[in-house]
Design goal:
The chain is an alpha/beta fold and about 400 residues long. It has helices at about 1-30, 45-60, 130-135, 165-180, 185, 205-220, 240-245, 255-265, 280-285, 295-300, 305-310, 315-320, 325-335, 360-370, 395-410; strands at about 35-45, 75-85, 90-100, 105-110, 145-150, 190-200, 225-230, 345-350, 380-385. It is built from 15 helices and nine strands. A hairpin with a 2-residue loop joins strand 2 (about 75-85) and strand 3. The protein starts with a helix and ends with a helix.
């Protein structure tokens, strides 16, 4: 009996030691990621599906058919979770990562989406949204496509969304780019990311793209080699845009106004109470509207398109000069994207009949970049006649994509 016990004891110790060694070896092989947390497979698209998607879109927007010539491979889409920070607090954030199914060396295209108020409509929450699909399938053209959710959506839905607030927005996008740099061949065998980056965005995403462009070119040029940037219909000068909103009898999208006021108050961007800006019942109501549940149309219905009914008369009269509103003016200026002498190819595009974001914002942004020293051969713009904000999305982004593709393949 004693001999059997000794054998059992030795055998048990052997298997325990073996198990520990296997565990240690597995742990030793785990990469030490600074940003990347996890990935989750979402969906794949075959080239036949991609070509059919483009054909369907081309019925309404014929120019998009020009993209079919660049389709090369199937696409796999993943939900990515990564580390970032918001107002000094560590936060887990999310976004989509779309990769060609074929192995190879690929550049990165980062897309920033426009205004969204519903968490279930965020990129990682609604992967097969046809509009997102049109960006996801760009990976079939040989790009690694990144689509951030932004803080406040996806896995960070409990965080207040920093709507049109520069620092947390740009920080979250740079961090997802760092996360993607960490995981190319280690998480996606055969896929290698080359140091070649393209940026694209529309509306809020156009503003975020220009702000990201400035940060990457001025502070991270040794890490990210920018090759092309395309910004569509962005509110680059928020102070000018806000003035253009309130200096009119009505504005069709009060959701934008409420979103700015609510986010800026949540992030302590100004010191005034909301009642200094908005009339009741709207001043008390907006905090309950931007919770990730209500659509833009539902929020518009809870506000009013009448500017005199929405804003306090003192605010309308004194916004540009009254010291009482200094912190609000300063917040809008601080979160605008000021011009600089960019050396990177930059394309501004905007619908000429945009009633949501005044096309003069783009005209002025372009002129200011030229005055700052940017070359008119490098920095260009196009105002497309007849297009409003919504129906300008696909035509503007089609032109923007072709611009970016041409930067890689002249």
């Amino acid at each position: 009996m004693q001999g059997k016990k000794s054998v059992l004891r030795v055998t048990s110790l052997f298997f325990l030691y073996a198990a520990l060694m296997v565990t240690c070896r597995k742990d030793d092989k785990q990469p030490d990621y600074s940003y990347f947390i996890s990935k989750e497979y979402a969906v794949s698209y075959k080239t036949a599906y991609i070509n059919n998607l483009i054909d369907i879109a081309a019925r309404a927007y014929p120019d998009i058919s020009n993209l079919k010539q660049f389709v090369k491979s199937d696409v796999d889409v993943y939900k990515l979770t990564y580390k970032t920070s918001v107002s000094g607090n560590d936060v887990n954030a999310s976004g989509l990562l779309c990769v060609p199914s074929s192995p190879g060396n690929h550049p990165v295209l980062c897309f920033q989406n426009g205004t969204n108020t519903v968490n279930s409509n965020a990129p990682t929450m609604y992967v097969i949204n046809p509009l997102y699909q049109l960006i996801e399938v760009v990976a079939s053209m040989g790009y690694i496509v990144v689509i951030p959710d932004y803080p406040g959506f996806g896995v960070s839905s409990q965080t207040a969304h920093p709507y049109l607030i520069t620092e947390p927005t740009v920080r979250s996008i740079i961090d997802i780019l760092f996360a993607v740099k960490e995981v190319d061949d280690s998480e996606f065998p055969g896929i290698t990311i080359i140091n070649e980056y393209y940026l694209l965005g529309y509306s809020q995403g156009g503003w975020a793209t220009l702000a990201l462009h400035k940060a990457l070119e001025q502070k991270y040029s040794d890490q990210f080699n920018l090759r092309g940037i395309a910004c569509g219909a962005g509110p680059y000068n928020l102070d000018y845009l806000f003035q253009s909103m309130i200096n009119r009898a009505s504005y069709p999208m009060p959701v934008y106004i409420g979103y700015i006021v609510n986010a800026y108050k949540a992030y302590n961007q100004f010191t005034n109470p909301v009642t200094d800006i908005l009339k009741e019942p709207y001043a008390s109501r907006i905090n309950s509207l931007f919770t990730g549940i209500f659509t833009s149309d539902q929020i518009n219905n809870q506000l009013t398109k009448s500017i005199p009914d929405l804003f306090n008369s003192d605010f309308i009269e004194g916004f540009t000069t009254d010291p009482k509103y200094t912190s609000i003016r300063e917040a809008l200026i601080r979160n605008s994207v000021s011009a600089w002498k960019t050396e990177k190819p930059l394309f501004f595009v905007h619908g000429g009949n945009d009633s949501h974001v005044n096309p003069l914002v783009t005209e002025n942004a372009y002129l200011e970049m030229i005055r700052a020293g940017a070359s008119s051969q490098t920095c260009i713009k196009e105002i497309i006649p007849g297009l409003d904000h919504g129906n300008g999305l696909i035509p503007c982004m089609t032109k923007a994509l072709i611009f970016l593709i041409n930067q890689r393949n002249p």
